[in-house]
Design goal:
Blueprint (H helix, E strand, L loop, with lengths): L14 E3 L6 E5 L12 E4 L2 E4 L3 E4 L2 E5 L4 E3 L11
Antiparallel strand pairs: 1-2, 1-3, 3-6, 4-5, 6-7
Length: 82
């Protein structure tokens, strides 16, 4: 996002864990010291918010495996304007 000129508009963390609650550890952000563990279910949800113009966030849910990550969400990445 920074390389495209939107870095200053990325104002929150990149993701978080999901469990019984929708927002759980681990927090995923540049200063987090938490380590992802096998079988963690996490979100990756980059978003930018340009005041007075627009905001957008795309969220994927992932399962952390021992040697890989499995995407659990299956929505398409197409822009729909209502």
């Amino acid at each position: 996002m920074s390389s495209k000129g939107y870095g200053e508009y990325f104002v929150h963390g990149l993701g978080h864990g999901i469990g019984i609650e929708v927002h759980e550890p681990p927090k995923i952000n540049p200063v987090s010291q938490e380590i992802l563990q096998e079988n963690n279910v996490i979100t990756i949800e980059p978003g930018i918010y340009v005041p007075g113009k627009f905001g957008i966030r795309i969220e994927d849910t992932l399962l952390v495996g021992r040697d890989n990550v499995v995407k659990l969400t299956s929505h398409p990445y197409q822009l729909t304007i209502y």
